[in-house]
Specification:
By secondary structure, this protein is of the alpha/beta class. The protein folds into 2 domains: 4-162, Hexapeptide repeat proteins (UDP N-Acetylglucosamine Acyltransferase, domain 1); 163-211, no CATH class. It has helices at 165-174, 181-186, 188-191, 197-208; strands spanning 4-6, 9-10, 15-16, 21-23, 26-27, 32-33, 38-40, 43-44, 49-50, 55-57, 59-61, 66-67, 72-73, 110-112, 117-118, 123-124, 129-130, 135-136, 141-142, 150-153, 157-161. The two termini are 37 Å apart.
Amino acid sequence: MNANIKDSTIASTASIDDNSVVLKSQIGEHCMIGKNSRFCYSAMGDFSYISINTHCFSCQIGKYSSISWNVSIGPANHDPNRISSHSMLFAKRFKMIDRGGYYNQYDGNVTIGNDVWIGCNAIVMRGVTVGDGAVIGANSIITKDVPPYSIVFGVNKFHRWRFDEKIRNRLLEIQWWNYPIENVKRCIDLIAKEPTLDVLADLEAHLKTSY
């Protein structure tokens, strides 16, 4: 593994590909970080992954979330309401300031829920919360919160719900992602099905069963 990892906690089953940077972050079991990615001041829950060339800053990612390539989550903000939007107002490397910046370019964290899918080239701006089970289409720009189990694309454009309200509510009640890995594994055939109330009742029962 040829990655730059500093001040971070990495689960033993996680994998981090070459030329990636992990800084002051926590990465859970069976997570993956693709090549040439940046994961800084962030946390990733079990089984979640980011693909190649993806950058995450000040981001909390839940479990079982799938983030594609060339995605940017929590990029630095430039303030357009000042005379200049240039980085010299907050970055000391330009040698224009000798103290703290005029504003915090990293103000506001991003929260990505559980079982979220984010398509390639998407941008999720700082301060946004993406609900459990949501889908963000490729090339989207997201500046507003995304409701659980919704599908959005473009610039904050709601497309449709993944499931009807009763199914969405049951999925949010069950929270299958919070069960132990062993329980989820033995229910994988049920998780692969299209959800009905009967299927979800069966799933919940099997998740709660001890063997």
